[in-house]
Structures are given as C-alpha cells and as structure tokens.
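Request:
You are asked to prepare a plain-text protein record giving the amino acid sequence and the backbone structure tokens, at your earliest convenience.
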Amino acid sequence: MYRPGRTLFPYLALAAVGLALVWSTTFSTLPQADFTFINGTELKSIDPARVTGVPEGRIVGALLEGLYRPDPKTLQPLPGMAVQHDLSSDRKTYTFHLRSNALWSDGTRVTAEDFRWSWQRMLHPETGSEYASLLGECVVGADQYHRGAVKVGNRVEIELEDRPNPAEPFPTGTILRSKVLAIDKPPEPKIPKGTSEDDEDKIKDAWKAKWQYTVEIDGQRQKYCKQPPAGDAQIKKCRQVLLDFSEVGIKAPDPATFEVTLLNPTPYFIYLAQFFPLCPVQRACVEKYGYPNWTKAGNIVTNGAYRLEFRRFRDRIRMRKSSNYWDAEHVQINVADALAVESPATGLNMYLDNQVEWTEAPPSAVIPELENRIDYLAKPSLAIYFYRMNVTQKPLDNMLVRRALNLAVNKESLCKNLLRAGQQPALSFVPPGLPGYEPASAGEYNIDKAQDLLRQAGFPGGQGLDRIEILFNGDGGDHRDIAQKIGSDWEKNLGVRVGYKGIEWNSYLAAVRQLSYSVSRNGWTGDYPDPNTFLGLFVSNGEQNSTGWKNPRYDQLIADAAREVDAKKRLQMFHDAERILMDEMPVLPVYSYVSVNMVKPYVKGFYPNAQDLHPLRDLSIDAAERRKYFQAKGTP
C-alpha cells in the first residue's frame, strides 16, 4: 500500500497547538465518539477498487470485509465473509465457503456473486484500479480481461453504446456474447522517438480502437469496432470488446460458494483474500448511484463491522457499528471518528490534549522525549521509504547518474541524526526480514565511487548536469527535511543542483502517475509477506511503476517466479530481479520504516505488527482503566 507519510513540523510549534484547539472547538456540538484517531491526509476515496493508500485502507477495512480478515496481532488470515476454504491438490483452485449470516448493512445477504461482480469491476479496464495486477498476476484470464487483450478464437463480451451513464462502466450497456472469428487491424503506428509513456499509450489505444472484430450473432457474421470508419454501415459501433468474463477463473457456482482458479500455485494468495481492494461492494448500490455517489453516507451499503454515518471534508469520517455485521456482538467500539489531520505536530498535540486516543508518526524532533513512555509503541515494519526516478527525463535517463545519486546519500546519518525512531538505512528495495529471502544490495555510502560513476556518465563534478527537483507530498516537515538532507549530500558530494517542491496529496499522486516529476519521494508497505509485493511494482507498464523504466529480463524473472513451485528457486528469481533493479536504479531505497504509534493505555487490542495494521473491529476501550487514567490527570 502507498504510504503518504506526513507533513511534519520540526518541533511542536505553538501554531500546531492553536490548530488543535481550533479543531476541538469547531465541532464541539457533535456527540463525542467512543474512539477517535488521527487518520492523516484527506482520503482520495473509499471505493476499494480505486484506492491504494494506508489512510484509505483503514476506512475501507472498517466499512467492508473480504473473504478473510487479518489477525490484529499476527496478521494471519482469519475467517471473514468466508468461514473456511478448500485448496485443490494442485494448489491452483481455492473454493471459499461463505457464512450463512453474512449480511449487508441493508439486511440483504452477502453472496458469492457479490464477490464475483466486485472482482470483475476491479478488473474492468475503465475502473482504473491500480491494484488490478493483484489478480492479473495470478488468476486465470484476469490480466487478459483487464488489458482488453482479445485473440481469434476467444469468447468475448461486446458492450453496445447504450449505457445509462456513458461516463460510468457500471451498469454496462447491452452485452452480446460470441466467439471472435477474425480481427482486422490497420497498420501499427510508428511511435516517434522521445514520446512519453502516457502519449505512447494514447497512440496505441487510438490504434486499437480501430480494430474490427468479426463475430457471429444469431447465426449472422457481424463486425464490431470501437471506432468504425465513417459511412460504413456494415461495421457496428461498440463500446468495449473484452474477454468474456466467464473465461476468467473467478466463479460463483452458488450463493455460498466462491471459486478462484490460479495460473500457478501462489503462496501469498490467501493473504490477498483479506486485502482491502478485494472487499466486495454491493452491485445494486453501485449501479443505482454511480461513482462517486455510491460511497456517500446515506447511499453506501457496507458489509463490515461499521457503516458510514457521515463524512465532513477536511474534518472527519464518523463510523457507527453495524447491527447486521455477522460478529457484531464482539465489536466493542460503537462510534469511531477518523480525523483528517495531515500534520503530526497537530495530531500529537491533540493526543497529548486527550482529544484523540491514537495518532501515528509523531515528529522526529520529539521522539527522544516520547520513546520511554508506555503509550509509545514502535516496531520495524515491512515498509520502505524510497525515491522514484523518472528515467524518461535527463539526466536520470542515464543509469550511471542514478547509481551515483544512490551512493552519494549518507542514509545512516539521515536515520540516526534526523529521523531518530530506529529506522534502518535501506541497502535494498525489499526490506529485510522476509523468511528465506536474501535481498540484493543497492550499495553503501561511497563518495569516491559515486563521483567516479558521475564522471563516467560525462558529468565530472556535476558539470553540465541539469538541475534535479525532488517532489514530495505536503509543504514541509520530515519529507522536506529528508529531501533537503539528501539534496545537500548530492550538492556537497557530486556538485548537483537540487530543487524542492511540495504539493498536496492528490496532486502529488497525479504528478507521479503522469511522470510529471524528476525525483519523487514514496513509501510502500508490503500488502502481504512476500518479495512480490515490492518487486512486482516495477514490471514494464505496471500500474504502480511510474518511473518510465522497463527491463524485459526483469519482467521475465517476475513472471517466472509466479510460475515456480519450488520455494528456493522462486526466491532466487526474486533476488535476481532485485539485482537488476538495484543495478539500474530506477528507484533509490532510503530507509526501512519503523511504525510509531501513540496509543492511550486504556485502548485494548492494539498490537504493533510488521504491516502496521490495526483493525478497528478488534479494538476496545477499558472503561475502568480510562476512568483511572483521567483521574490521575485530574480530568473528569
């Protein structure tokens, strides 16, 4: 999952105190929630198919529940909507058995068809899910459906031009089903040298829109095309031609049975079954209101422990326990508020002022004053802070420049003197700690070698090197401090000119995705305990790649690892792929995260863990301990 990080003040400024006081009084007329926490940046969405961030994942995970759910302590999969599953002898087919008391918040039953349709929606190319590759990499036919890759002989679904809302893929227009008899393609366009990746995709999409598919409908041969030639009445216009979803290994043979067929044995698949992008959404709700209206309070129908009571932009999301949740009797917190507070300085002040029970990532400058408190919880996590490099722009199109930049950063000093929460210098992209996996080294701090690489690249002492700008989300704090420390190392050690730019979260996401940056800060938390959750990000044209980097050998190793059943050989393939990534350096690993949380001692069920996941449904408040806590502070 994307880690947005936070915009941190270098110390607890009086301005932050003022902001906290304003926050506490602005909505003082609201009844107090049972549990309030700082959730960081304003959410992009709460549609599980369209989000990737940690703050979004927390809310989606409270409102919706997948086939399985994570144990709050060990993260091992626990029964969710599925009470159990069977695995075929070849380890390729999972059969999930849904519980009979799984209900939506409107009282209707959660069925296997809800999962089948939701996963289809996630894979549909017009949904634009950045997590579609989760299924595309391992489920039969899923990648072909997502990419709209159709071949002669395939069964297809042809969508006509009669959608109720042309801008939304669901509900669809009329669907015709047939087998492709022939595909007529115009000459493939030549891509001009220097064309950006986005523009190249647009050129290819425009070309594919002119493909003509010959099928047989009601015994008659017919041609369909997304963009037929003008005046040719023999070729009918359609909106989509996709692989028939019945050919994808995602089935609902009956309301209580959900079946998934994999391309190859996939050791981490059961962890995907509890990951928030694969939570179901109610089809009737989505098709009635459309996106984003279906996610609004009053419209949204949920199947998780909570329902959405209201959402106030730049303020909070209020959630109330759902009486229809299958395990409602064990959900202890009735009303919870998630506050959209981006500044950890403000968040920490609100925590110290007892306005919230939980905040994360306090400012680095005050960690030495906090780390001996009983409510300070820190644990190494399966997460990496790194810099993406846009290899389509000069001078970062030169691999030697990228390698020089990596070796010129004193990561140990950054962790020890700036961050100070136990973060470890990242000498690989995959964080340490995955059983049996040996990460490939990115190389240690070495000024002489960095300068030599820059000289080999044709920029001795930085001469002739274009200015490099570091992009980060937010307008100050740790991200800026980290950028300035790294930029200072580059300027001092290599003679590089460096600029800095902070922008708000959604604009930052768009800039990274569109390659409108030179160097950008990023964070990634492993979605499951396997190297693939990190290395799978950078396959060519991957939804999360966003560097412009491509390497066919790297792609092949990731694909081969997906098919390999021998665990030792599989991990070696990942190591070899990471070796390529670290040699060509489209990403610069900076440090391995330590998750830091401040949690009131009367909050129970909160366990530090490697993915920093803390399901709301498993938390509770010890009322007696809470009274004792506030009495000790002289507060009623």
The longest strand covers residues 376-389.
